[in-house]
Predict the 3D structure of the following.
Amino acid sequence: MIETSDHAPPGDFEIKAIERVIDKEPVFGAQTRALADWISSLYLCSLGEALALMIPGGKREMEAEGAHTFHDESEYRISSLNEEQTRVLAEIESTANPFFYLYGVTGSGKTLIFMHTAKRVFEQGKAVIYLVPEIALTHQVVNAFRSVFGAAVMDKELALLHSGLTASQRLTSWRRVARKEARIVVGVRSAVFAPVPNLGLIVIDEEHETSYKAGSTPRYHARQVAMHRIREEGGLLLMGSATPSLEAYAGMQSGSLAWARLSSRAAGGRMPTVEVINLTREQGPLSRRLIREIAATKESGGQTILFLNRRGFSHFFRCHSCGYEMKCARCSVSLTYHKNRELLICHYCGYKSKPATVCPSCRSLDVGFLGFGTERIEEDLRRLFPDYTVARIDTDTVKKKGTLQVVLKEFKEGRIDILLGTQMVAKGLNVRNLRLVGVVLADTGLMLPDFRAAERTFNLIVQVGGRAGRFEREGLVLVQTYRPSHDAIRFAARLEIDEYYERELAVRKELS
């Protein structure tokens, strides 16, 4: 029930009597209703669509299922704050601005500061919402909370909210939060709506990530919703990234966001050396230099990550006679060839088609697949390095629940020599023996019809490169590209983050 009226609306219909009450307490209160009204007004959706974001589905009378969490006590070990982190924590606690940005290089210990801030808020009797961009990252955040607060406290006080849970598990977590049985919520974008009473802190980790923006109605942004909640309910919004979104960077420069800088790596490692490789001078997708460095890294006892933000074997099917390309019948984008399934698949809508043996346009037999994706690179790696352990993680290989966590755990334990993946390898990995990062093709996102395409490419290169050399030994990042002179690639290779942002802001101002 949303509201009551003293008069029945016009129309010829029967108002039936209420047979029974399913929920023993109200499903939502005035605070949630007010937030739904704001969502409905700002994002031009119905009140029902707004409320559907905030209230989990599932049968409310069924026996609720516990929301199990994956944790590995060895995965996160709490350490004391260093001098720089202590200074930043003091700045956060003394700020009068409810919006604070933690702008720190990769590996600078932002998570540790988030945890200490959350602990102090929790000790004041207030609630914490901690957002991460992907479900896979919730596991390491839960482990961090367990290390800081203790396992017994977290088993009682922590609730997970994300789509990886069953409907029953989500309902159980949501009820625990609403009933004040859990004061710490960890989740992805939609967890920003958690019905926590006495809100004290919202953390948005890796704030730059595009996954914080919903792709379907209501098309809300978690950052914008978090800001509204903090304004209305009080508390602190604490965001952080090594590569802030351009909106957040502009907010820091204008003073609307308070901020602090972390300029050194917490474990004492130096920032990696970054080199750009021009693929126009190479014969295949893996350059000679990258192949040599993979072998040298293995010989020295190190591990390698290869990043390619493109799934499948080949990214389009073309006729060499007339130039015809097979495209999605619904989206008109090129279909990607998946060799292991012998299918052409649209990565936007899921449309599938069998590969053609003759050109549908001119009937020529001179047809083939062009380009490369993670499936093709994995095949090349296994051919080039038959004695190495190679693993691939993308949405094609980690569909089974728990697979991603198992692969990442094996990589951290040193049982995998080369880890190949899409954006999943660019976030959250903190591996002692990771010496080499290879960006197989930095250009994949540059040609998208999106004014943020260059910014996102820049962020990905900096983020994935930041996985290397976090500890004693310096890391090496090799960035392969057909466009070595592009600003996003040049500035990322030199780790000139502020310089790139100032240039990009100037360009957007000129074009606005």
Notes: The two ends are 45 Å apart (CA to CA). The mean pLDDT is 90. The CA atoms of residues 5 and 11 lie 15 Å apart. The first strand starts at residue 99 and ends at 104.
